[in-house]
Amino acid sequence: MSRILTGIQSTNVPHLGNILGAILPAIELSKKDNTESLFFIADFHALTSLKNPTLIKENTMAVAAAWLAFGLDSTKTIFYRQSKVPQVSELTWYLNCYTPYPMLANAHSFKDKGDRLSDVNVGLFTYPVLMAADILLYDTNLVPVGKDQIQHIEIAADIARSFNFKAGKNLFVVPEALINDRGMLVPGIDGQKMSKSYNNFINIFLPEKELKKIVMSIVTDSKGIGDAKDPSMDNVFKIFKLLANETQTEELRQNYIKGGFGYGQAKTALLQLILDNYKEQRINYNKFMANISALEKELAIGEVKASKIANEKLKQIREVLYF
Ligand code: ADP
Ligand code: TRP
Predict the structure, then answer these.
(1) How far is the CA of 262 from the centre of ligand 1 (A)?
(2) What's the first-to-final CA gap in the chain, in angstroms?
(3) Does the Cβ of 145 fall within 6 Å of ligand 1?
(4) Mean pLDDT, all residues of the chain
(5) Cα–Cα distance between 320 and 185 in angstroms, integer?
(6) Beta bridge partners of 41
(7) pTM of the model
(8) Which helix (H) or strand (E) covers residue 311, if one does?
(9) What are phi and psi of 194, to 5 degrees?
(10) 149 pLDDT exceeds 70?
(11) How far, in Å, from the CA of 188 to the mean position of ligand 1?
(12) Which residues are catalytic?
C-alpha cells in the first residue's frame, strides 16, 4: 500500500492550468490499486500571502468545489482542510526545532525574496517546514506536484532522514516527489505559463458571458481572416489542443493552414469546447458554491479520518521527543 498526498493553496479559484496539471492527474492516481490518497486545501499556507479572511474562506470553498466537481470521491480519498487538522502545526514546531537554519535560507520560496526582506513574514520563511509536516504527519510515500515544488519535497525528505537518524529509529517515512511526466504546461491567455500570479488564467467556472470575454482576449498575431496561419505558433490552438480529441484538433489545424478562417472563429471553437467538455463540472462546481453546507459536509468526512491518523502519529512522535 502506497500513500499519496498533495495540497493546493487556497489563494484563488483553480484555473485551467491547475486543473489539467494538478487536479486531474492526482484524481487519476487516486484510482490506482494499492494506493491511499489524501488531498487537502493548504489554507495555512495561503495565509503567508493572503490576509483577507473573506477571500481565504471563498477560495478554500472554490478549491474544494473544483476538486469535487472533477470527480474526487470523498468516501475514497481523504479530503480535508489543513486548518481543520491543526495537529500539523504541533508537528511543524517539532520539525522547526530539528531544521537547520541554512536549509530554509536556501529555499527558493524565501531566497527569491531575499532582497526584499521587509516583505517576508516568518510564515513564508518556515513554509517548507509546514509543508514537511503536512507530508510526514501522514506517513506519505509519494507527493504528486509540479516541478516548482521539487525542492520543498527534498527538504521534507532531508528533515525526515535527519530526524530518523537523531531519534535512532525510522519514525518518519521518507517521501518522494512524483512529477507529472507528461509535463503538461498550460499556456495562459498571453502565451506565458498560465498562472494566477500573471493574471493570465482561464477560470472555466465563470458564467458563459464572462468566460467568453476571457477566451476572446487570448493574444494572437495580427494575421487577417484570409491568411494561412501557423497552428504551432498560436495560443488559441495550443490551449484547444490540450482539450480536444484528435479529430477536433486535426479539423482546426486544417482550418488554420488553408486560411479563410479567423482567430475569432478559433476562439469561438475553443469557448464551445470548454463549455461542452466541462458542462457537468461547471454545473457541479456552481451547485457546491451555492451550497456551502454540502461542501462542509464533504470536507468533514475527510477531516475526521485525517485527524485520527494525525493523532496516532503525533502520539508516536511525542514519545520519541519527550522520553
Ligand atoms: P499558480 O502558478 O497559478 O500560482 P500554483 O503554484 O498554485 O499555481 O500551482 C498549483 C498546482 O497547479 C501545481 O501542482 C502546479 O504545478 C500546477 N500548475 C499551475 N499552473 C500550471 C500550468 N500553467 N500548467 C500546468 N500545471 C500548472
Ligand atoms: N506548496 C504547495 C504549492 O504551492 C502546496 C502544498 C502545501 C503542498 N503543502 C503541501 C503540496 C504538501 C504537496 C504536499 O503548490
Answers:
(1) 30
(2) 31
(3) yes
(4) 95
(5) 43
(6) 8, 81
(7) 0.94
(8) helix 292-322
(9) -65, 125
(10) yes
(11) 11
(12) 113, 193, 196
Within a 13 Å sphere around the CA of 269, how many CA atoms are in the beta-carbon half? 21
> Which domains does the chain show, CATH number per domain?
2-186+292-321 (3.40.50.620), 208-277 (1.10.240.10)
Alpha carbon distance 185, 100 (integer Å): 34
- Distance, in Å, from the CA atom of 99 to the CA atom of 105, rounded to the nearest integer, reads 11
pLDDT for 83-115, tens place per residue?
A: 999 999 999 999 999 999 999 999 988 888 777
Query: How much distance in Å is there from the Cα of 258 to the middle of ligand 1?
Result: 35
For residue 101, how far is its CA from the centre of ligand 1 (angstroms)? 28
pLDDT of residue 197: 85
Cβ–ligand 2 distance for 42 under 6 Å, the answer yes
Strands 142-145 and 35-42: unpaired
Copy the grid coordinates of residue 239.
Answer: 490551449
To the nearest 10 degrees (0 to 180), the angle between helices 208-216 and 263-277 is 140
120 grid coordinates: 517576508
Widest distance between CA atoms in the chain: 79
- Percent of the chain scored above 70 by pLDDT? 99
Q: Which residue type is seen at 238?
A: K
When pLDDT is averaged across residues 290-294 and rounded to a whole number, the result is: 97
Task: For 15-30, write each residue's pLDDT tens digit.
Answer: 999 999 899 999 999 9
Distance of alpha carbon 300 from alpha carbon 43, whole angstroms: 15
**Is any atom of ligand 1 closer than 6 Å to the C-beta of 275?**
no
Tell me which of 29, 88, 134 to substitute to probe ligand 2's pocket, judged by most ligand atoms within 8 Å of the beta carbon: 134
